[in-house]
Design goal:
- This protein is α+β, with helices and mostly antiparallel strands and 145 residues long.
- It has five helices and eight strands, in the order H-E-E-E-E-H-E-E-H-E-E-H-H.
- The strands form four sheets. Strands 1-4 form a two-stranded antiparallel sheet. Strands 2-3 form a two-stranded antiparallel ribbon.
Length: 145
């Protein structure tokens, strides 16, 4: 059986946010909503040396975060209607017909990447572009990176 998940290599990420925009465009998501977010992590400092020069230990890296399609997802365990479930290909999906909008899955997600669709009163998240995977294609965020 094929087991899909999401792997992100921060050493190769430039923080361009193409993955975030590609997902929003492909899923036709509104301005205030995204299934994938790129976060910037930065820090460090400059130190004056005894000779008057400065050295630094500054760093920056980026993290692209969306549903990780966990092997043992906490969100699935707490769903009272089994709307959140693991499919045969290992992705974590939501059956909107079964979702009652209780948000137990939202609260249990360690990545904070599930959202309540206020209009439909159902939870939404990254689907890893299950339609594209079924056709042998890459998810939109991966294809555009």
């Amino acid at each position: 059986m094929t087991q899909y998940g999401f792997y992100f290599d921060s050493t190769r990420c430039t923080g361009c946010r193409t993955c975030e925009i590609a997902c929003k465009d492909y899923k036709d998501l509104g301005v205030d909503f995204a299934y994938r977010h790129v976060y910037d992590c930065e820090g460090g400092d400059w130190q004056m040396q005894s000779d008057g020069t400065y050295t630094q230990d500054c760093f920056v890296y980026h993290v692209s975060l969306g549903c990780q399609h966990c092997d043992d997802p906490a969100c699935v365990k707490v769903c009272p209607t089994q709307a959140s479930h693991v499919t045969e290909d290992g992705t974590v999906q939501i059956d909107k017909g079964k979702c009652i909008g209780c948000q137990f899955c939202v609260m249990s997600c360690p990545y904070g990447v599930r959202y309540l669709n206020e209009e439909e009163r159902v939870v939404e998240k990254c689907t890893l572009c299950e339609q594209k995977i079924a056709q042998g294609e890459l998810p939109q965020c991966v294809a555009q990176c």
